[in-house]
Amino acid sequence: MTPSATTEAYEVYAIRYATRSARRRDNFIGGDPHDADMPLDYYVWLVRNAQRTVVIDMGFTAEVAQRRKRDYLRTPREGLALLGVDSTTVRDVIVTHLHYDHVGSYTDFPAARFHIQDDEMAYATGRYMRHSRFNHGYEVEDVVGMVRMVFKDRVAFNTGSAEVAPGLSVYRIGGHTRGLQCVRVFTRRGWVVLASDASHFYEHMEQTRCFPTVFNVGEMVDGYEILKRLADSMDHIIPGHDPLVMKRYPAPSAQLEGIAVCLDVAPHG
Ligand SMILES: [Zn+2]
């Protein structure tokens, strides 16, 4: 399926705003036999063409970074500004899920409508949040804040798959959280899929292994098939937290080296 001839391909960027160290055994259910570092990067993504600018996820704040002991590099708002985007004017933000590292700086987007899966809002406000096993990835103030956004009619609810704009769609995957959604975007190299936490690292989807923060393992594993079906190739799928993304894709300019990469061109190596 290709979008109509009038749909302009989107530019797509990953913007890195934080990082943290971890060991390989931390990142897989069942651990890992190799005793080695496997750090996580934290990203927001920017999708734009001549018609529109859409931000995907909003990262966390400096305060939460300090409390959760993450290495904070810049606010997502600052990262977006480096690409010429003023977060206060952004009209549409796709929230892949409501975990703290994907929604936390929502107050920097005062003009935005937030696109969320029905299942994610129900999950983040429902019975499973009684358990630290499931609530530890959420900041209750973020969840309460998003409920306030519902009352201001600033949340667009999706059930399953939905087109946000021509050439830009979301698909519910679940797994990691009950309402996790991925994003499919039409670019000059074809259909790119921003997996977000449907695959934290390349290794998860490539080897059918699972990240330990999970609501439904079955949906997580099925999700790898959904990603592959939606993308033009494995090289068109962008994992949510893998530092390899910064290595495989080029920076948009020398000044943005280590800060942002272009995902609408083929990866190298
Ligand atoms: Zn995440």
List the helices and strands and how they pair.
Layout: E1 11-20, E2 40-48, E3 53-56, H1 62-67, E4 71-72, H2 76-82, E5 92-94, H3 100-103, E6 113-117, H4 118-124, H5 132-135, H6 140-151, E7 155-158, E8 162-165, E9 168-172, E10 181-187, E11 190-196, H7 202-207, H8 217-230, E12 237-239, H9 244-248, E13 260-262
The protein binds zinc ion (ZN).
The N- to C-terminal Cα distance equals: 28 Å
Strand content: 15-25%
Spatial extent as radius of gyration: 17 Å
Determine the number of helices (DSSP H or I, runs of at least 4 residues).
9
Low-confidence stretches: none
| Helix-strand makeup class | alpha/beta
Shape: globular
Q: Provide the helix percentage.
A: 10-25%
* Helix/strand order, N-terminal first: EEEHEHEHEHHHEEEEEHHEHE
How would you describe what is shown here?
The structure is a single chain. The protein is an alpha/beta fold and 269 residues long. 24% of the residues lie in helices and 25% in strands. The strands form two sheets. Strands 1, 2, 3, 4, 5, 6, 7 and 13 form an eight-stranded mixed beta sheet that branches. A hairpin with an 8-residue loop joins strand 9 (168-172) and strand 10 (181-187). The longest helix has 14 residues, at 217-230. The two termini are 28 Å apart. 46% of the residues are buried. The site of zinc ion (ZN) has 6 residues, from helix 3.
